[in-house]
Specification:
Elements (H helix, E strand, L loop, with lengths): L7 E5 L5 H17 L3 E5 L14 H5 L48 H4 L8 H6 L3 E3 L27 H5 L14 H16 L4 H14 L4 E6 L15 H14 L4 E6 L2 H11 L4 E2 L23 H14 L4 E4 L3 H9 L4 E4 H5 L2
Helix pairs in contact: 1-11, 7-10, 10-11
Pfam family, one: FUT8_N_cat
Organism: Xanthomarina gelatinilytica
InterPro entries: Fut8_N_cat
Amino acid sequence: MAVNDKKFLIIDSRPYGLFSIFLHTIDNIKWAHDNNYVPVVRWGPGRRDPNHGRAGAAQASQMANPSYVTDRTNFVTDETPGSWNNTPGLKHCQCLYWDEKGWRGSLNPWEYYFEPLNEYTVENAENSEHDVADIFMVGEFDFDLENKFLIANLHSYEPLALWQLLERESEAELPHEEKYEFKHRAAVAEVISNNVVVKPEIVEKIDNFYNKNFSGNVLGVHVRGTDKKLEYPHKALPISAYIEAIEEYLQKQPDSKIYVASDNNEAIIQIFKRFGPQKVFVTNATRMQNYLSADPICLTPSTGPKHGEEVLIECMLLSKTNHLICTDSNVAASALYINPHITTTYLNRKHGK
């Protein structure tokens, strides 16, 4: 079939953290395959309203009236938006990891970290007569598509279905791989493994760290701080909640090592002080100093391609642990989706937050 005879789905990014846009991309990849579209990923300078111009968009997203949505930055005006230009006024819409000089030979941040999805390019899709950009066909306002793969709300990608499924009381007595949570995670893992290939130079860094530090049972801990304190309804828990969960796990697995991934140094320092450098290990990464810093790294001048790689490495290493202590972070969610066999201590459930 000629390129012009194909239907393309161009998957753009929005100004959120790496694994927020990663999970959104996975959702759209699945939609594309389910609906006979060819997906291509075009993370970059940014676009305002990814639903603009799609048949049924007004019904599906209420885009015609910004007062209906909570995420106003995606609905800047009712005028026809630009779709691939970092024009004045759109700075806040660009991919937070984009660099105008590019990285690893590409101007597309997806290709900073991952291989292209297939043999087709963004240019193929843009020049096709049958292309559509970033249609959010998953979510509570999609009246026609029954499958809601990852997200329930098409405006903010939240809540992830995962957070509603982890550690449900109704499944507490079931073996892990008999839980619906596992089946859901395994379905997402299949889409990821069939479509996403991490760049080999990043895989090499992950493997080197893994081979040097991982042995026996490894507990993963992901501490999401900084602006998490502002999120509703799941605000940041105190660092002590993570330490208590680690202590409980070590009562059952006293020889376990502890791999900690975090957006801040304060949490890492406290965990090191409590459990010691013989047990705890971390990767080198740029982090905020304080647990409750105003912004995460990706919203500061320290963001960029390198920071995205650091977060990706942390997530991939978390996915190689035996058990994960976490709150509702997209980094933790992605690790749990990449490896559905990991068991969890989901602190939001544990603390009713």
